[in-house]
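Hello forum,

I keep getting stuck at the same step: I have a sequence, I want structure tokens, and every attempt I make locally crashes halfway through. Rather than fight my setup again tonight, could one of you with a working pipeline run this one for me? It's a single chain of 142 residues.
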Amino acid sequence: MAVNTIFNQKRGFHLKPLHIAGVGIILIAIIYGVFGFKDAFRSYTHSVSEATSSGRSVQLAGFLGSTGEYDGQGRWTFILEDENGEQVKVVSAEPRPANFEQAISIVAVGQYDAGEKVFMAESLLVKCPSKYQEVAGSSASF
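Reply #2:
Ran it on my machine without issues. Output:
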């Protein structure tokens, strides 16, 4: 009789609700990782012409070409100049960075909007001179 009860049990693969939840979390993490990876591989460029013709999100590095101002819609705008002297107007919804005037270079992350003829920045990375760099004309003696 004990042998018959073994054969009457259901065979197959059964998932418990906890296993289903675990698999769901793993799938969500994989999907999130794929989309995060896509943003991590933005092309980095020093050329305004390359950024305007790419049609996709890039990291545009350059130098400050104007002091900047807020436009009528409350967006921070300034002129970014690349190493070839080409200029593009950058518009950012973020507020003006605190150390904007001291910037030695700026990286604008975003894409060029051909309709408005501006570079729409999602974020701005301001690179300032380090306080550890030697100031011209001064030397440290030990």
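The beta strands are 43-45, 58-64, 69-70, 76-81, 87-92, 105-113, 118-127. If your local run keeps crashing, start a new thread with the error log.
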